[in-house]
Structures are given as structure tokens and as C-alpha cells.
Amino acid sequence: MWLFFYNIMVHIAFVACLPWLVWKAWRTGKFKEGFGERFGHLSAGWVPSSAARRPIWIHAVSVGEAQMLPPILERLSRVYPDVPVVVSTNTVTGQAVAKSLPRVAGSFYVPLDLSWAVRKVIRLLRPRLLVIFETEIWPNLIAQNTRSDIPVIFLNGRIGDRSFQKYLKIRFFLRRILQFPRVLGMRSDEDARRILAMGAPLDRVRVLGNLKFESAFQLVHEQNLPTRQELGISDEALLIVAGSTFPGEEEMLLMVFKQLHPKNPRLRLLVAPRHPERFEEVAQLIETSGLPLHRFSTRSPGTVKPQSDTSPILLLDVMGQLKKIYSLATVVFIGKSMGLTPSGCGGQNPLEPAAWSKPVVCGKSMQNFQEVVDALSHEGGLWTVDSPDRLAEVLDHLLSRPEECARMGQSAFRVIERSLGAADRCLEVIQEILPAQPAHSPLQRNEPFASG
Q1: CB-CB neighbours of 289 under 10 Å
Q2: pLDDT digits (tens, 9 = 90+) for 73-105
Q3: Do 180 and 227 sit in the same domain of this protein?
Q4: Which residues pair with 8 in a beta bridge?
Q5: Do 83 and 141 reside in the same domain of the chain?
Q6: Is 33 domain-assigned?
Q7: Is 302 a member of any domain?
Q8: Most buried of 17, 282, 300, 426, CB within 10 angstroms?
Q9: Per-residue model confidence (pLDDT) at position 314
Q10: Range of 256's domain?
Q11: Is 268 helix (H, G, I), strand (E, B) or coil?
Q12: Which of 28-42, 205-219, 230-244 has the lowest mean pLDDT?
């Protein structure tokens, strides 16, 4: 009954918002890509072949979740070599990452949480398992798969501070949804405590660890890394990489750079905005500041750029390269951490630079990664600041002390090494639900999608 009333409300909201969605797609192009897929229309060529072998369906909402997948994908390909894996995401940037992943048969935009749209995807894909990363609690996505005899599990579950307070207000509703998943695999004891408080059954909740440590560790095996020479940066230059920046942080970083550059003529700053739609905005901001700008998109891989042409500011205006760019840094600043705007709070992943043994600096607004920040800080691999002036002081301190930078970087990497094991524990959960078996196992007569 609760799902019936939920669907009534969702459809009313959908009809009310549809004109806005269409206008937004036409005006900004934000929802234009994958518009049909959001209503269950999967027409890509990989769909029939994957459906014939009943894939494992993984849902990863955006970039961060999609970037966690390689350790799991590698293990799935080893245990289920004949079972394809398909990945859904919510965002354009998440799709870009999903499409680049090896061992993925196909990717698509997750359908809106409309019962008929979700059922249509189920009929087309015929999945044998749905794995939801982090904690995307969509009632129809969960309930419709479960009612179609498709097991649903959560991995790397996380309940943030603000989300937890909101979830508690609708606990009467959530506890019904949380009866459906077979396993709720959480990152930490605190995340497990929170989802239990939201009404999850005790026997379904497990603490499996944080997969972000696993995916970060795999970075050291990345190939085709960019080089400083391709960007015209000498080996002796000092490079600050500012990753996943949000509005307000670029202005702050340019101000800090202008303070530090007279003392460090070899200093360079690379800015990587979090969202691609801001590339042009940030480029104009840098040019307006009067500082020469070099755009990463103009580089020619394998070609050495003359150092005489080097601009002090570089803009990373392509997606999917930041985790590799961190390997070139002297010091890394993590964006979305200074709390300069309402949207610029919560932080971004500090484990990627830590994997390259780089010292990490960030603001105090890192709630989405608090467990990781605490571990890195305790080990001496991360430094938090509370103001632009303090950021300038810390950067100045580190840039003049290469031995301390090296020590911080080594400490950060040790945290990652000590925190491995989540991927194997996640695989054990999947094997409990889905024992290894031939991919072409026959469908049961009572499976609702057998007739297509």
C-alpha cells in the first residue's frame, strides 16, 4: 500500500515538473543526453547481447561512485567470466567515467523512479543481480527489482550527516523500503548504526569497509600518464594541483597564488573545476585576473612543450584526467572544502592524491569524507585550513620544505595500504547471493520478464 501512495505522489510530481525538465533539456542540454533512457528506453546495441546472458546491473550515481568500480569489476570478471556487467549512472560525468571502464558491457542513465520506467528496464536487461553503490534509496528501483525476483544489495553504503537527519524524519517510510535489499553493505560502524536507526533489519546490515581505498590503490598501476614536459613544466618547478574546485575557490586560489609566486618564481598552479560546464567560466576568471593561462585540452600527448611557453596557471578542462594529474603535483588542494558557498561544502576524495604519495591540504568542510580525513590527519598525511590566509601559510610552508612534503605523502599512502580488503569482502557478499554458475543458465518459468 505504501508503494501505491508513493507512486501516486511521484507521478503527480513528475507531471508537474515535466515542462521544466523539457525546458531545461532544451535550454541547457543538461538532461538532453540520455533523455529516453531516463524513461526506460534502452536502444544501444549492447542491450540484446547482454540481456541474453542476464547481466549484473551496477548502479553508480556519479563520478565518485563510478571511479570505485575497477576493483569490483576485476573480481567479477574473474569469478563470473561469462556474465556481463552493465552500469547505470545519474550524471553526464558519471556516464563519461562508466563508458571508459574496462570490463563494462554497456552503460546507461538510470531510469527515473517511475514504476513503469523501472519495469521496462528490467524487462529489457533481464538482470540477475542489482548492486547499488553508496546509498541511493530509490523505492521503485529497489522494490520493482525485488518483486521481479532480482536480488538487490548495497555496497559501500554511506549515510552523511545531513542526509541522516532528513532520513530520520521519514523513517516510517524508509524502514519499509529497507526490508527489500538482501544485504546492506556499509563502509563503517557509524554508517551501519545510522542505517539501523533508519529502520534497516539488523541481519541485513554488514560493515565491509571503504572501497575508495581500493580504487585509490589501483591508481599506482595507471598507464599513459601525462608528463610535466608535455605541459611545459620543468622537473624543478613547484606545482600546486587544485582538484575538483567549486565556485569561490578559484578566486581564492588565484589570490593565494599571487601572494606566493613572487617568493617562488618556479611556482605553477593547475586548477581542475569539478563540473565541466564551468570550464569556460573559470577560464575567463583566470584571464580576467591578468595571469597567463594554458589549457590542458590544447596539449599534444607525447609532445614536449617548450618551457619558455609555460603559463603559470594551467586549466584542466577535460574530464577523467585529474586522478592522473595528481601524480605531477608537489602539493594538492582538495576542492569543495572551504565552505565558501552553500554548494561548496562536503569535500571531494583526498585518497587519489594520497595514492600518489602527495601531501594533501583541504578546508574544514569535508563531511562527506570525514572518516578518510580523520585517518589521513591522524597519520600526518593531510593538513586542514580554515581560511584563505591560513591556506597561503600552509602552502608556503610545504613548498619550501620538500622533505616534509615527502614525509606527508608517505604517511598518506600508508593509510591506504592499511585500509585495503573491502573489495574482497564485497565480492564474498556477491558470491553468497549469486553463486558462480554458467552464464546461460535457463530462466525459470515464473520469472516475470521471461515473456519479454
Answers
A1: 16
A2: 999 999 999 999 999 999 988 999 999 999 999
A3: no
A4: none
A5: yes
A6: yes
A7: yes
A8: 426
A9: 95
A10: 220-418
A11: strand
A12: 28-42
Asked if 314 and 272 count as a contact pair (C-beta separation under 8 A), the reply is: no
User: What residue ranges in 196-303 does DSSP mark as E strands?
Assistant: 205-207, 238-245, 267-273, 293-295
Query: How many Cβ atoms sit within 10 Å of the Cβ of residue 11?
Result: 13
Bridge partner list, 293: 313
Checking if the pLDDT of 439 tops 60, the result is no
Name the amino acid, one letter, at 28: T
Q: Are residues 52 and 187 in the same domain?
A: yes
Amino acid identity for residue 414 in this structure: R
How far apart, in whole angstroms, are the C-alpha atoms of residue 229 and residue 231? 5
pTM for this entry:
0.84
Give CA angle at 182 (437, 121), nearest 5°. 70
Total count of domains within the chain? 2
User: Can you list the positions of beta strands (E) in 82-223?
Assistant: 85-89, 106-109, 129-133, 152-157, 183-186, 205-207
Write out pLDDT tens, residues 155-206: 999 998 889 999 999 999 999 999 999 999 999 999 999 999 999 999 999 9
User: Residues 410, 413, 414, 420: what is their CA dihedral angle, to the nearest 10 degrees?
Assistant: -170
Closest CA to 67 of 46, 93, 90: 93
